[in-house]
Amino acid sequence: MDIRNDLAAHVPRLRRYARALLHNRELADDLVQDTLERALARAALFTPGTDLRAWLFTIMHNLFANQARRAHVRGVHVSVDDEYLDEREFAVAASQTRSLEVRDLDAALQRLPDEQRAVVLLVGLEEMSYAEVALTLGVPIGTVMSRLSRGREKLRVLMTGARPIEKLRVVK
């Protein structure tokens, strides 16, 4: 089986996930390109009959994790090119509260730890099952559920400004 024919169908989802992870269009496109390049180079390792989408997301997650580790050592990438910046992107009409909510959600997602953000995006945005996320990230399903729970709680706190829910203590 040649996976090359099937790769194109997965590019939009890979781009959406990469952009949500990185919050930088150019870096996200680079991550997608690196993912596809690695998938093509290692196409013989793909097991026919298994989920190509999960395999691609696993490759992307591993590349992202490696890049994040390297970036942590090097420092944060900050784009300083203003010539491509369209100032109209910052204009918001008074009646567009929905776009403000989306912007706030995006900002809150960026404040989540990488592990929680990845799980929240894969479950919420990509609509993957817990088992698919566990396979993609290489962690147990219980870890997926706890990261998702913690991520959702932190998002709730960030979005509403509420205090975190305190765990009840059982006094004996």
Automatic annotation (TrEMBL):
<keyword id="KW-0805">Transcription regulation</keyword>
<dbReference type="GO" id="GO:0016987">
    <property type="term" value="F:sigma factor activity"/>
</dbReference>
<dbReference type="InterPro" id="IPR036388">
    <property type="entry name" value="WH-like_DNA-bd_sf"/>
</dbReference>
<dbReference type="Pfam" id="PF08281">
    <property type="entry name" value="Sigma70_r4_2"/>
</dbReference>
<dbReference type="InterPro" id="IPR039425">
    <property type="entry name" value="RNA_pol_sigma-70-like"/>
</dbReference>
<keyword id="KW-0804">Transcription</keyword>
<feature type="domain" description="RNA polymerase sigma factor 70 region 4 type 2">
    <location>
        <begin position="104"/>
        <end position="155"/>
    </location>
</feature>
<protein>
    <submittedName>
        <fullName>RNA polymerase subunit sigma-24</fullName>
    </submittedName>
</protein>
<comment type="similarity">
    <text>Belongs to the sigma-70 factor family. ECF subfamily.</text>
</comment>
<dbReference type="InterPro" id="IPR053866">
    <property type="entry name" value="PhyR_sigma2"/>
</dbReference>
<dbReference type="InterPro" id="IPR013249">
    <property type="entry name" value="RNA_pol_sigma70_r4_t2"/>
</dbReference>
<feature type="domain" description="PhyR sigma2">
    <location>
        <begin position="7"/>
        <end position="61"/>
    </location>
</feature>
<keyword id="KW-0731">Sigma factor</keyword>
<dbReference type="GO" id="GO:0003677">
    <property type="term" value="F:DNA binding"/>
</dbReference>
<dbReference type="InterPro" id="IPR013324">
    <property type="entry name" value="RNA_pol_sigma_r3/r4-like"/>
</dbReference>
<dbReference type="InterPro" id="IPR014284">
    <property type="entry name" value="RNA_pol_sigma-70_dom"/>
</dbReference>
<dbReference type="Pfam" id="PF22029">
    <property type="entry name" value="PhyR_sigma2"/>
</dbReference>
<dbReference type="GO" id="GO:0006352">
    <property type="term" value="P:DNA-templated transcription initiation"/>
</dbReference>
<dbReference type="InterPro" id="IPR013325">
    <property type="entry name" value="RNA_pol_sigma_r2"/>
</dbReference>
